[in-house]
Amino acid sequence: MSGKPLPPDLPDLQLPEPGTQLGAVSVRVRREADLGQLIAKLQGAGAEIVAINTFPATRHEPDVVRVFDFETRGLGSAKAATILRKLPGVARAEARATLGQIFGKRVIVIGGGAQVAQVNLGAVTEADRHNLRGERISVDTIALVGEKEIANAVRAVADLPRAHILVLAGSLMGGEITKAVQELQEVGIPVVALNMAGSVPSVADLVVSDPVQAGTMAVIAIADTARFSIERQRGRRY
Amino acid sequence: MSGKPLPPDLPDLQLPEPGTQLGAVSVRVRREADLGQLIAKLQGAGAEIVAINTFPATRHEPDVVRVFDFETRGLGSAKAATILRKLPGVARAEARATLGQIFGKRVIVIGGGAQVAQVNLGAVTEADRHNLRGERISVDTIALVGEKEIANAVRAVADLPRAHILVLAGSLMGGEITKAVQELQEVGIPVVALNMAGSVPSVADLVVSDPVQAGTMAVIAIADTARFSIERQRGRRY
């Protein structure tokens, strides 16, 4: 079992937090817009830039070539939109909800189709119960096969915005996947594993035999509306 | 039924595409690092910036305060890392896989826990079959209740990177949700609905009574490894 404690109260820059203003703005731009200038203006108004996504323009407006979605910390959506609207190349700037406000924390489930689907059943059903009480928890999955493919996906969870816990749902996982699990734990993301063959269960933060229960426990481990602490459960098997 | 055709071959800047180089780099920075300068350097080397995510530094390196993940188009990961490594405030720059290379296209499922879980069962199982043949399809969900909450989530799907199709999994959806569905269709994201009460089925691109079948059809509608065309199915009910 991993002996490393999680960083205490791991912050997430993209999630609502008391005392911190978050904002999101969607900006439709023409070719002459300068991404660096847009960022500098937001920063000048006190924003930390926490996310940017770029999309192709699909609404057929004349000359609009890209959509930039910015998420900010320390500056609200309406103000961010007002600031950007005046800049060269900006056709339109709309205040939005942040993705964290809508989709919240993410439980990530990776593994084989059969097990992923069952873990999901538990996780979605449990997330529903917490979302009804004001939480926002999403359950996001990918079904994959192969040691290298799964190890790469486990490593990439560290780069997924708002990923707070990983469930590994398979029958045999070890080798490179086990190394990837340890790397992920080092950045503060706990890992729940099904009871399976291979060395992954020996490094997982929690091992659960029943996939529906594994999904449920993953959700309550990250829900502010639950009292379950993965710290206290570390290394246990159910 | 929505008569609007999708924009033909809707591009996605964050997904692999023949002839286009994608890159990702994770940069661990000290306080003096300047996000604008990092971006300008990548752009100077020919990159379009397609995504940036900012994370708190959780690996306890001295003076490292933030992690910036950049995704680029027109510049590979290794080159991006080499360029950024030399800049002031950069403690470390690592080449990564892009999130699109790992997690691929996303099917988004929104609705009630019971139905979302069943749609997931179909979607994850079907995605597994395509991922085995070289596709990358993720199935991402949120269980929510309330017209306003669901409508806001539907609108936010337009801002989710790599979201290619939405499944609405509920028993009654209309009003503001129906408007949100139409807005989402306008940006080129098709919507599958369960056969349910309310006006959502009348505007959905496809209505499917069985939730497992709805999840399966959503996956084959976006898989390059399948021959199902939502264009040809538009307005049908199963």
Account of the 3D structure:
The structure is a homodimer of 238-residue chains. The N terminus of chain A is likely disordered. Chain A contains nine helices and nine strands. In chain A, 36% of the residues lie in helices and 26% in strands. With 238 residues, the first copy, chain A, is α/β, with parallel strands linked by helices. The interface between A and B is large, with 65 and 65 residues.
Largest interface: A-B, 65 and 65 residues
Low-confidence regions of chain A: 1-8
Strand order in space, largest sheet of chain A = 6-5-7-8-9
Give the fraction of residues assigned to helices of chain A.
Answer: 25-40%
Major beta sheet summary of chain A: 5 strands, parallel
Radius of gyration of chain A: 20 Å
Number of helices of chain A: 9
Percent in strands of chain A: 25-35%
* Element-by-element helix/strand order of chain A: EHEEHEHEHEHEHEHEHH
For the secondary structure, the number of strands of chain A is: 9
Identify the quaternary structure here.
homodimer
Question: What is the molecular shape of chain A?
Answer: elongated
Rounded average pLDDT of chain A: 93
Give keywords.
homodimer, about 35% helix, 9 helices, elongated, disordered N terminus, about 240 residues, four-stranded antiparallel sheet, alpha/beta, five-stranded parallel sheet
